Task: structure prediction
Amino acid sequence: MRRASPALAAYAWLVYAFMYLPIFVLVLFSFNSSKFGAAWAGFTTRWYGVLFARGDVREAVQGTLAVAATSTLLSTVLGTLLGLGLWRYTLRFRTALTFLLVTPIVIPDVVMGVSLLMFYALVRQLLPFQGGFVTVLLAHVTFQVSYVALVARSRLAGYGPELEEAARDLGASGLRAFLYVTLPLALPGVLSGALLAFTLSLDDFVVTYFTSGSGFHTLPVLIYTAVKRGVTPDINALSSLLIGFTVLLLLIANALTRPRRPSRPGQP
Result:
């Protein structure tokens, strides 16, 4: 239908309001001059200055970015290789591999967090270690690889191996064919998958909460711990910055995967 009915349009606006109005209220009250309560007492930006002056916030930001950057790098390399393998080769157990690849995406985060916690407890009996950066890093890689692999494979789904074979026929080695033919075709999907993995790592709370231990905190865990003592404007400011950064990354990822419009005749 070219024109939606008024009832359908009203229903759609109600759904959007239900989804985004709480986020708008959170961002709005990060500029509230009142420290406690839900009453609006005036506009101020001092809570952002208070936020940046807190040492625990700086440590959480450093830990969050370190985990997100390192896990994204590892998952991008592993996920890209896995996606290329599923696209290029006809494997005997391809359906089973695809099912295992999708499993970390569809299972609840609580189940994954508890399973990783039990796994770390089992490994700790053999190799004593404390939960921290490494445990959170490995936990994030486990679900980030699936997203990168699926996005990379979907990017190459419209291309056949004939392009790479043509490059080999023209004298290119396997490495040069990969670098100059396959990788440029998959690069938008790889970058989009990397940005998606980075965003998921920034926002993850449940898996991080179960695997971080007591001496390492990320921003979502810090926000959860602070909210238990009461919601203050500086926590609203921290949540607003995290939401804004996440939305920016998602917009960039969406722009990278958007198909290009074919140019008109006579245009480059």
Remarks:
- The mean pLDDT is 82.
- Residues 55-88 form the longest helix (34 residues).
